[in-house]
Design goal:
Strand order of the largest sheet: 6-5-4-7-8-10
CATH class of the largest domain: Alpha Beta
CATH architecture of the largest domain: 3-Layer(aba) Sandwich
CATH superfamily of the largest domain: NAD(P)-binding Rossmann-like Domain
Structural class: alpha/beta
Radius of gyration: 20 Å
Order of helices and strands: EHEHHEHEHHEHEHEHEEEH
Strand content: 15-25%
Number of strands: 10
Number of domains: 2
Largest sheet: 6 strands, parallel
């Protein structure tokens, strides 16, 4: 039986991503060494939390003498890239799907969008570096490029059907932009992203001046 599965992405891992972004900015400014309280101030967390997160992911450094920016960036990148580049696909070549397919920064993160899919024949004729295939070729492309992660950006009525196909063909992780909660087997990781909900939650917090969750 299928059930709704929330992505098990820990808050600490999200913070590691924030730390990396801040460290890359420090690196670009020519900073060679920093302290945990500096990084905490940049990312809005305490120095103690920074050190705790580093310890959880076995990121080493000398907190008394400061951390080396280059070394920490290298260690953080190893967390995410230790298995090398990852091939992913996008199902749905509408506004969101096209924007994701054309997002150049994915390459810097060793994320390769190898193909997109759409049932609209006009979308299949789009001239792009990333081809648009029919859904009939979904399994072929997944097998050819050893795809384990997919982005779903299709209209709500088609989302669950597309999700079921991806799971059937061996995809183990799905990022869902369709405005519906998708149901998957326990072993499949899914991150349901509803942009409208995200915007409304920020609007609410601004109007209520509510504090962020710790």
């Amino acid at each position: 039986m299928k059930k709704n599965t929330k992505c098990p992405l820990r808050k600490s891992l999200r913070r590691i991503l924030l730390y990396r972004g801040s460290l890359l900015r420090l690196q670009a400014l020519g900073v060679n060494r920093f302290y945990s309280y500096t990084l905490g101030k940049e990312t809005g967390v305490s120095a103690e939390q920074v050190r705790k997160d580093f310890s959880e992911y076995r990121i080493k450094g000398n907190q008394r003498g400061g951390y080396h920016v280059d070394q920490l960036i290298s260690e953080m990148e190893h967390i995410f890239y230790k298995k090398g580049s990852q091939n992913i696909i996008v199902v749905g070549r509408g506004n969101i799907g096209s924007s994701l397919a054309n997002y150049s920064n994915f390459i810097q993160r060793q994320i390769n969008i190898v193909a997109t899919f759409d049932i609209d024949p006009s979308k299949q004729r789009i001239r792009s570096e990333i081809p648009v295939y029919t859904m009939e070729r979904l399994k072929e492309i997944i097998d050819r490029f050893a795809v384990r992660t997919a982005i779903v950006a299709v209209p709500e009525p088609a989302a669950q059907s597309v999700c079921d196909q991806l799971v059937e063909y061996g995809v183990g992780g799905i990022i869902n932009f369709a405005p519906v909660i998708l149901k998957v087997p326990d072993e499949v990781i899914i991150n349901n992203i509803n942009l409208s909900d995200e915007i409304e939650s920020v609007i609410y917090c601004v109007s209520q001046a509510c504090p962020e969750e710790s």
